[in-house]
Each structure stands twice: as C-alpha cells, then as structure tokens.
Amino acid sequence: MKYKSLHNQHGFTLVQAIFILVVLALLGAAMVKLLGGQTATATMAVQQAKAYQAARSGLEWGAKRASSGYSCSDSFDIDGFHVVVSCQMDTIYEGTTSSYPVYRISANASFGSFGSSDYISRTVQMKVGFP
User: Fold this and answer.
1) The model's pTM
2) How far is the C-alpha of 111 from the C-alpha of 68, rounded, in Å?
3) Which of 127, 120, 126 shows the shortest CA–CA distance to 52?
4) pLDDT tens string for the chain (131 positions)?
5) At 116, is the secondary structure helix, strand, or coil?
6) Rounded distance between C-alpha atoms, residue 32 and residue 1, angstroms
7) Which of 16, 21, 70, 104 satisfies CB 3.0 to 4.6 Å to 65 for a cystine?
8) 1 by DSSP, 3-state: which?
9) Which letter does DSSP use for residue 107 in this model?
10) CA within 13 Å, CB half, 45
C-alpha cells in the first residue's frame, strides 16, 4: 500500500514548480516597475537642480544689469529652460553719507509645458543694493 500512495502523487512537484515560477515572475515584474520609478525620480531630481541653477543665473544676470543702470527685466533660454527675470526698484536706502537704490529681482526658470509630466519650474528672489 505504501507504493500505491506514492504513485497517486505524480505531478505534485510540477504544481509546486509552476507556483514558484509564477511567484518569481510577479516579483521580477514588481522589481522592474520599481526600478523604472527610481530612474524617473533621479531624472526629475537632475532637472530640478538644473532649473534652480538656471534661475540663479537669471538672478545674477539681473543684478549685473541693475548695477550697470540697465533694465533688468527680460526673458531668455538657457539649455532648454525658459528664464523670466523681473526687476523693480524696491526702496531707496537713505544712508548717512549717500543714498542708493535697492532692487528686488525675481527669476523663474521653467522646462516643458504646464500640466505635462516633465514640467519643472523654480523661482528664486533676491534684494540687492548698489552704493
């Protein structure tokens, strides 16, 4: 009888093997999806850093223009980022020996179109005075 019960279990190892293969396939698919998400996150982090640096470049450009007495509001493109710089005289500082203007400069760098999955935008501001 012992031998008869062993003969009735043919194919049980096949069921186990198929179950293990299905579980491993699902784990593999989940890992591929997770890796794709991490790659997209890293790419967006690089783009955000580029947007920040493009906006900082706009601030520096605006400060240089303001210090030279030129209009410091303009827009331009840097490496695929559209940078809009706005500048206005905020106050005139009244010192003991002289007075000078203080400018409020704002720069916005954007990439892509609003609402798209690759849209990035960064805005930075500063105040600067030139005695």
Assistant:
1) 0.68
2) 29
3) 120
4) 455 555 566 667 788 888 899 999 999 888 888 776 677 788 888 999 999 999 999 999 999 998 888 888 999 999 899 999 999 887 777 766 777 888 999 999 999 988 888 899 999 999 988 77
5) coil
6) 49
7) 70
8) coil
9) E
10) 6
Nearest by Cα to 77 from 91, 93, 61:
61
Tell me the C-alpha distance between 33 and 128, whole Å. 48
Tell me the two tokens of residue 38.
Answer: 């991490």
User: Distance from CA of residue 125 to its chain's centroid?
Assistant: 18
Q: How far apart are CA 54 and CA 78, in angstroms?
A: 7
Tokens coding 30: 């989940």
Residue with tokens 């809009």: 84
